[in-house]
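My main concern about presentation is that the manuscript never shows what a single data entry looks like. In essence, backbone conformation is discretised, so a fold becomes a row of integers matching the chain in length. An entry of this sort, consisting of the sequence and the corresponding backbone structure tokens, reads as follows:
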Amino acid sequence: MIENWVVNLMIKHLSYSSISRYLKCGKQWKFRYIDELEEESSEALQFGSAWHDMIRMYHADTQYSVGHCWDMAYEKMQLPDELIHLGQKMLTSEKITQTIQGLNPNLETLEMKTELHIPGVSVPVVGFIDMIDGGVPTDIKTASRKWTQEQADTDLQATFYLAALEQAGMIKLPAKFRFVVFTKTKNPDVQILETTRTHKDIFTLYGLVNEVWGAIQREVFMPSDPSNWWCSQKYCGFWDKCEYGSKK
């Protein structure tokens, strides 16, 4: 059976990022999870990982300043000079530094693993929430432009995490979710956007994941529309391996 084929290829769980990747480009999903090809890490991903590490280190051990935690984070990630300087520039913003210092996470929830079991899907959806801050599940983002409230209200990541936390008995729906978005603009800024999810949102999510899982079982891996912004050398780590990308 097809499902045995998937299991034999070690697909033991899904994640928000893998489902989001499949929805963007089934071909890219296949390269990553079926073919297990090496993926080049984009500068945006490298910077975002280092920024998350800085915030986690600062709140795990506040004997260090935010700036010192950035030094440790970029050295660990071995960031190129331009990304190091970008982070340093962002930290000259008093608003950004104060926002980082003002977070009040439960230390046990820093990078806390969540697991969501969806009827009809034979593998769990696994994720790691950045923190629960003052009782509100919170995700840290770095972005090249400001978010809108509509983005926060429709973002699937919030729905995944709240569904998993509700299933674990940690929250009751409807529940709030918070995005802290640090923008890498000419004048760096930070936004705090809160959004709410209901049982209706969770049921819609369940249907979507069932559709994606069913398509994976049928080996449906449609490529992205090449005109999409993510179908480019800058944003796709499989650009040189894809006949729909590198040959454009």
The chain has ten helices and seven strands.
